């Protein structure tokens, strides 16, 4: 008989197959194989993107030319536009507003086929530093309530371009999924006067059953209530609500644990597509002062597809228990 497990943050239930768990070779994941072709994110093609917003560059190189190390440009086909007013209004029972926001693309490095595990630690540190800089800049606009930072790697994960990149979308409202997590953390905090994420962190460190990697500032682990097989969270040990306020001394530790975590995942599942999302406290609104939230990174490998049962119930079926997934990942060596 499998386990039913309840998420202490949002109250979601998952079903974990503990009787006949899948091994890594049982997953028929779509292999990500780059196809090549002209890439607007590669050196020499800077004119194929909108003009850069910000970049880390080698000395004596001009904007929108080669010589950059990390480059940020507006999305050529943005989900939201930065110009204009929100103009919230009702149309009968429906609420509407103008599509105001910001949509940026952060080109992580100049190398077309190098993902995070293939980079030097200092290259990852520059990339992470830039995500913080851009988030700090975007939240200065009081219209924006939430900065969503996410990465789609591989076509199965929704990446339309092969060159590794991260997207940042500034939203004029807090997304529903984020609000559910914030409200769950708030309810827990009001009842216990503690951060639910800090409690999860302490239990994981105590039990050591689901921790993949650990360093001075972070742990990476498979959550007890995972939604997807081999789902991984990376969370700071010290309580902190805002990702973009991460102290500079913690960035090398995050770069190191992110690199090795994804490397382990790719050793178990070669040519894997994945998504990761950074969950952080909202800005410029009622929830921005709430100190019971704890930023973290959620990494979802594309091994299964959400089907009718999941859509119909909100439950998730987990074919490999997180405890077993952790063992496979910990044992993954170069």
Provide structural commentary.
- The chain has one domain: 2-Layer Sandwich (HIT family, subunit A).
- The longest helix is centred in the middle third of the chain and has 18 residues.
- The model has no long low-confidence stretch (mean pLDDT 92).
- A ten-stranded antiparallel beta sheet has the order 3-4-7-9-8-13-14-12-11-10, sandwiched between helices. The chain has a three-stranded mixed beta sheet with strand order 1-2-15.
- Helix content is 24%, strand content 22%.
- By secondary structure, it is an alpha+beta fold.
- Helix 1 crosses helix 4.
- The chain contains six helices and 15 strands.
Describe the protein's topology.
Blueprint lengths: L2 E4 L6 E4 L37 E4 L10 E7 L14 E3 L2 E3 L5 E6 L13 H18 L7 E8 L11 E7 L4 H17 L3 H12 L3 E4 L3 E4 L10 E5 L14 H18 L5 E6 L16 E6 L6 H6 L2 E3 L3 H9 L4
Parallel strand pairs: 2-15
Antiparallel strand pairs: 1-2, 3-4, 4-7, 5-6, 7-9, 8-9, 8-13, 10-11, 11-12, 12-14, 13-14
Helix pairs in contact: 1-4
Terminal-residue CA separation: 35 Å
Indicate the radius of gyration in whole angstroms.
Answer: 20 Å
Task: Give the CATH architecture.
Answer: 2-Layer Sandwich
Helix content: 10-25%
Q: Can you tell me the number of structural domains?
A: 1
What class, by secondary structure content?
A: alpha+beta
CATH fold call: HIT family, subunit A
Mean of pLDDT: 92
What is the name of the CATH superfamily? Answer: HIT-like
Main sheet summary: 10 strands, antiparallel
Which residues sit in consecutive blocks of at least 5 with pLDDT less than 50?
Answer: none
Q: What is the overall shape?
A: globular
Output the CATH class name: Alpha Beta
Q: Count every helix, treating DSSP H or I runs of 4 or more residues as helices.
A: 6
Strand content: 15-25%
Q: How would you write the strand order of the largest sheet?
A: 3-4-7-9-8-13-14-12-11-10
H and E string: EEEEEEEHEEHHEEEHEEHEH
């Amino acid at each position: 008989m499998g386990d039913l497990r309840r998420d202490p943050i949002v109250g979601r239930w998952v079903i974990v197959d503990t009787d006949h768990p899948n091994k890594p070779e049982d997953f028929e994941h779509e292999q990500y194989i780059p196809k090549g072709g002209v890439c607007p994110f590669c050196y020499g093609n800077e004119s194929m993107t909108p003009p850069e917003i910000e970049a880390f560059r080698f000395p004596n190189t001009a904007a929108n030319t080669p010589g950059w190390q990390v480059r940020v440009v507006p999305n050529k086909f943005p989900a939201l536009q930065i110009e204009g007013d929100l103009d919230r209004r009702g149309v009968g029972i429906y609420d509407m507003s103008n599509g105001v926001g910001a949509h940026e693309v952060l080109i992580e490095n100049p190398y077309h086929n190098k993902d995070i595990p293939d980079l030097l630690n200092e290259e990852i540190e520059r990339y992470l530093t830039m995500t913080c800089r851009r988030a700090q800049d975007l939240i200065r606009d009081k219209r924006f309530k939430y900065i969503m930072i996410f990465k789609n790697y591989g076509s199965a994960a929704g990446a339309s371009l092969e060159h590794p990149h991260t997207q940042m979308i500034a939203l004029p409202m807090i997304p529903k999924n984020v609000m559910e997590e914030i409200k769950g953390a708030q309810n827990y905090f009001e009842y216990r006067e503690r951060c639910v994420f800090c409690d999860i962190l302490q239990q994981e460190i105590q039990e050591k059953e689901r921790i993949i990697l650990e360093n001075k500032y972070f742990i990476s682990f498979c959550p007890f209530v995972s939604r997807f097989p081999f789902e991984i969270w990376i969370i700071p040990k010290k309580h902190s609500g805002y990702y973009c306020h991460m102290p500079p001394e913690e960035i090398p530790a995050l770069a190191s644990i992110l690199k090795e975590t994804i490397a382990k995942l790719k050793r178990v599942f070669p040519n894997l597509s994945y998504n990761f999302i950074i969950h952080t406290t909202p800005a410029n609104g009622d929830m921005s002062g709430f100190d019971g939230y704890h930023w973290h990174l959620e990494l979802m490998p594309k091994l299964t597809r959400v089907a009718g049962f999941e859509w119909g119930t909100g439950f998730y079926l987990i074919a490999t228990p997180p405890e077993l997934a952790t063992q496979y990942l910990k044992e993954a060596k170069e």
